[in-house]
């Protein structure tokens, strides 16, 4: 049985595991990234841990990490959560250390592939994965193949313009879906409402600076008017963004993940409602909109699936 090492690199922690090809996670370890110590030290800790997990039947290493990155060169270009990783040759370093192929992709594409092989995307050839948490990311699989686009920039569903003069987005554009419907955006709208002096129970729970989307959701569930307005508006924008994706790609399935996306069944119901109002040229009853299934190990399954995808495509 062929096996794979998976490495899920985040700004807070790095998870590392060994998988059997059919998707069994045999062993895993999680350690803090501590990005301030720099790439070399982090690389050393990754190498030490991979050595411990390496067995003779391991045929490849898969990596999921924050972008931007060049997945062919295997270099990462200064993601906001990994300061100092400016053009670091991670693929080359690991291939030299272990003499087996290393495949990498950004974390959203990795999660998309993880769901495709082992989660909510099983059995489907055309799907779009949308993760809604602090940001909004995504991945697109068409005819069983992840879409990379020019310089690996495809699938950035969070950066479609929804409101031409909307709030400024981290990418530089105004009114992106991410700037309107991510957890960060929801929290920001709540802080702005408080600054305007609007009456809400949110301030009873938290200092203004520490309000999160989770607080807004809890207040919405209790009927707080300000929180309800903010939450519903964000969900409407999310529904519009997903409607746009459906209109353009007409996929078989849309998979919704992330802490906001999975915060309650009402999120998907609301998305379906808006899609029903906005999408006319695609038979929306033939597009399934479902929650992601992989849970907390999605990053590891994703990293494994990046390597599995490349190896599988090569074999066909
Ligand atoms: Zn943007």
TrEMBL record:
Family to which the UniProt record says this protein belongs: Belongs to the ROK (NagC/XylR) family.
Top-level taxonomic group: Bacteria
InterPro entries on file: ATPase_NBD, ROK, ROK_cs
Organism whose genome encodes this protein: Dictyoglomus thermophilum
Entries under Gene3D superfamilies matching the protein: 3.30.420.40
PROSITE patterns cross-referenced by the UniProt entry: ROK (PS01125)
Listed name of the protein: ROK family protein
């Amino acid at each position: 049985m062929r096996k794979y090492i998976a490495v899920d690199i985040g700004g807070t922690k790095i998870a590392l595991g060994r998988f059997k090809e059919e998707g069994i996670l045999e062993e895993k370890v999680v350690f803090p990234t501590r990005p301030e110590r720099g790439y070399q030290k982090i690389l050393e800790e990754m190498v030490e841990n991979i050595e411990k997990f390496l067995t003779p039947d391991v045929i490849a290493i898969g990596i999921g990490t924050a972008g931007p990155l060049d997945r062919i060169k295997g270099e990462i270009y200064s993601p906001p959560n990994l300061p100092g990783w400016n053009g670091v040759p991670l693929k080359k370093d690991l291939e030299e250390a272990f003499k087996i192929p290393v495949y990498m992709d950004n974390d959203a594409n990795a999660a998309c592939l993880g769901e495709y092989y082992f989660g909510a995307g099983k059995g489907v050839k055309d799907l779009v994965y949308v993760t809604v948490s602090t940001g909004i990311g995504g991945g697109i699989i068409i005819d069983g193949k992840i879409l990379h686009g020019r310089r690996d920039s495809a699938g950035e569903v969070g950066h479609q313009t929804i409101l031409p003069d909307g709030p400024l987005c981290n990418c530089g554009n105004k009114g992106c879906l991410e700037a309107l419907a991510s957890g960060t955006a929801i929290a920001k709208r709540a802080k702005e409402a408080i600054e305007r002096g609007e009456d809400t129970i949110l301030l009873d729970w938290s200092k203004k600076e520490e309000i999160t989307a989770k607080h807004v959701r809890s207040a919405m569930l209790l009927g707080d008017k300000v929180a309800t307005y903010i939450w519903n508006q964000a969900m409407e924008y999310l529904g519009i963004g997903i409607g746009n994706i459906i209109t353009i790609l007409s996929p078989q399935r849309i998979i919704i993940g992330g802490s906001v996306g999975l915060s309650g069944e009402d999120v998907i119901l609301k998305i379906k409602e808006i899609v029903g109002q906005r999408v006319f040229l695609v038979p929306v009853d033939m597009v399934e909109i479902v929650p992601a299934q992989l849970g907390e190990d999605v990053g590891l399954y994703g990293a494994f699936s990046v390597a599995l995808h490349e190896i599988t495509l090569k074999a066909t």
